[in-house]
Structure formats: C-alpha cells, structure tokens
Amino acid sequence: MTAVTDPAVSTRAWPNRNFRRLWLGSAVSTFGSEVAELAVPLLAIVALAATPGELGAVRTAQFLPFLLATLPLGVLVDRRRRLPLMIGADVGRFALMMIIPITVWAGVAGMELLYVVMFAAGVLTVLYQVADFAFLPEIVTHRQLVDANGKLAAAQSANEIGGRGFGGVIVQAVSAPFAVAINATGYLVSALSLRGIRVEEAARPVASARPSWSEITAGLREALRHRYIRALLGEATTFNFFNEIFVLGLMLFAVRELGLGPAQIGIVFTAGGIGSFLGAWFGSRVTGRFGYGRVLLIALVLGNTAPVLVVFTGTDPVASLVLLGAVFVVMGVGIGIANVHAVTVRQAALPERLRGRVNAAYRLISWGAIPLGAALGGGVAGLTDSRTTMVSGGTGMALATLWVAFSPVRRLASIDDARGAAPAG
User: Is residue 124 very low, low, confident or very high in pLDDT (cuts 50, 70, 90)?
Assistant: First the structure.
C-alpha cells in the first residue's frame, strides 16, 4: 500500500498527487449530483406530473439501497481493492442516469422507470461511498485526514453553491432532462480522474468465498457499541430522517404555495452551499482553540436548529425567499463544520480492517432513515399541507443534536484523543 509515510510531512493533503485526483473526481461527480438533486424532483413534478406520494417514492427508491445493500457491500469493500470498485460504480452510474434524459426525449419515460433507475443508481452510490470512506486513509497520512476531509467537504459545499443554482437555471432555461444528463457526465469524468491514481493496494485476506453472517454484522456491532460512533450515528440518523421530510415539504411549498421557479429554488439551496463552504473551510481553524468536541457540538446546535425558523415563512414570495436563504446559510455553516469533524472522528477511531464494514453499517442506519423519511414526508404532505410538513421536519432536525450533547464526543479535545479509541467501556 503506497501512501505518504514521512512523519515530518505537512498536515496539508494537497501536495499529495493521489489525493488531488481523488478530490477532482469527487468534485466533478458531486457537482453533477447537486444538479440532479434539484433536477430529478423537478422533472418528476413538472414533466411527469408526480403526486406528493410519487415524489416521496422517488426519494425512497433512491435511498432504499442504504437499507438493503449496505452491509454486504461493506464486506465487499473490506475484501477487495477499493479503487476499482469506485471506478466501476462511477461508470455504472453514468450509464444508468443517462437512461432518464434519453427516455424523456424519446417520450417513453414514466414514474415506474424513474423508480428503477434511481434504485439501481442508489446501489452503486452505496458502493462508491463505502469504498471512498475506507480508501481515503490509504492515500493520505493520519495527520492529513482533517485537511483532506476539509477540502473534500469544501468542494462539496462549493458544488452546492454552484450545482443546485446551476441546476435551477438549466432546468428553467433548457430542461430538467438536460440537467440530469450533466449529472451523468460528472460520474464519467470522475471515473477517468480516479484512473489516474497510482496506489498499490494490499491484497486483503478472504476467509471464504461467501461471507458469514458474523462477518456481515461485525461492522454493525462495532458501530452500535463504540462510544463515539454510536452518538454520531444517532445524530446523523435523526437528522437525515427529518431532513427528508423538511426538504420534501420545502419543495412542494416553494412550487405550489409560493409559486417560485426552479432558478429561485436553486438560490435557496445555493445559500446553503455558501454556508457549508464557509463552515468546511474555516471550521478547522477554531478547533485548536476551543476543542474538537466542543466545536462539533456548537456546529450541530447551529446547523440543526436553524430549520426551525421556517415557521416564520408567510405567503409573500420575496420575503419567504429571503428568510429561506438566511436559514440555509446558517444551516450550511453548522453542517459544514460538523461534517468535517464527524467524518474525521469516525476514520481515526476505527481500525483499518473494519473501516469498510463499520462505515457500511453507519450508512445502513443513517442513510437508511432517508427513504423512511421520504415515505413519511409524502404521506404527511398528502394528509396535511406542504407548510406543516416543512415545519415538522425542521423541528425534528433540531432534536438530532441531543445525541452528541449527552455523549463523550463533546469532551474530545483533539482528533488524537479519538485515534484507535476502544468501543464502549
């Protein structure tokens, strides 16, 4: 396994050529994904006349693989070389996402096809993300992890700034199918960038061709009993569940109650991206002064509580647009700081041999909450109204912080305190 091993090396990850390749691939693919985050639901609402229940079903199909496929894919990641898995996942997602615009242009698209494509692409997204989490520590040193995660998060935040705003403009100026095609192309460019990484991944021993149930569930057991991972997992799961309800209500409220266009909705999400970029870029600078766990907790309070302010939205489109933009900026700053710190804690606290499976278990639970939230959000919107759905989702997001507030994570002074930490006492 090839990585920078000089103990005197800087904590900066950018001089590492392999990291720059990984960063470029991640940046390009997430830009396309951010375009699709706005384009796919708008395509469903406008081009396919989706009902609130059908819109929730699209999101359910997209994230259901995190419930069904995460654990076995985590075993696969711990058994195989990670880089080829990531490249294959990118190529597969390119092919799948191109099906959507092609069928729309051919006049044969339907909601059923959208469900299937989003589910299949979701399986490959699970594979890529589990492998990516485990692969990063192989190409950067432990001291470079915080900087590397910060740069990856900053790129993702920058993509939120440009991606969803650009997606809104493209949808309004050209079409939603064309915006989805841009998403697909991003995956192809990412695969080409990853092919330029030069690393000798060590072959991993395989006890048997078929993984045992104990091997599959090892990551799940570790995630649930580890004192740091368990708290972060509870926060992420609660946040993702209610965030899905919040965003679904927001999309319906913006389109049907306020009459906002795609470009204006894109502005709201762009505001969140600006906040996330600022949080990811400057968050590490305050860590040394105030302590790792304390900064993480304050960031969660800031980001998770901001959505509650949507209760003050009214019927005036301009005033509501300004308020939503402000909410997303504050929310983005908190989440931008918290994400960098939480991911780094998880990577530092876990042994390499379990990193893939524990991350798979983490995503099984935390991302598995997304389709459940989407399904419930669609039902709530159908029974009540979009504004009630949005407000209830924002209120639930604020409760997520309690997991970390009452855990040992808030007492971490530095990332070294989490390195190789034992599970529970």
Answer: very high
Spatial CA neighbour of 26 closest among 164, 117, 99, 128: 128
pLDDT by residue (tens digit) across 256-307? Answer: 888 888 778 878 887 887 887 787 776 666 665 677 788 889 999 999 999 9
CA distance 420 to 136: 17
CB 228 within 8 A of CB 350: no
The answer to whether 302 and 423 have CB atoms below 8 angstroms apart is no
Q: Are 299 and 283 in contact (CB under 8 A)?
A: yes
Q: Which residues contact 155 (CB under 8 A, 6 or more apart)?
A: 23, 26, 27, 30
pLDDT of the residue at 394: 93
DSSP class of 255: I
- In sequence order, which ranges of 107-212 are alpha helices (DSSP H)? 111-139, 145-173, 176-194
Which domains does the chain carry?
17-197+212-417 (1.20.1250.20)
First to last CA, the chain: 33
292 vs 132: CA distance, rounded Å? 24
Contact 204, 78 (CB under 8 A): yes
- Per-residue pLDDT band for 6 (boundaries 50, 70, 90) equals very low
Helix crossing, 213-225 with 70-79: angle to 10°? 100
CA distances to 119, 153, 316 from 76, in Å: 19, 26, 51
Which pLDDT score, from 0 to 100, does residue 309 have?
92
Q: Which residues contact 152 (CB under 8 A, 6 or more apart)?
A: 23, 26, 136
Question: With 70 as the cut, is the pLDDT of residue 194 above it?
Answer: yes
Q: How far apart are CA 278 and CA 340, in angstroms?
A: 12
pLDDT winner (highest mean) among 116-125, 156-165, 286-295: 116-125
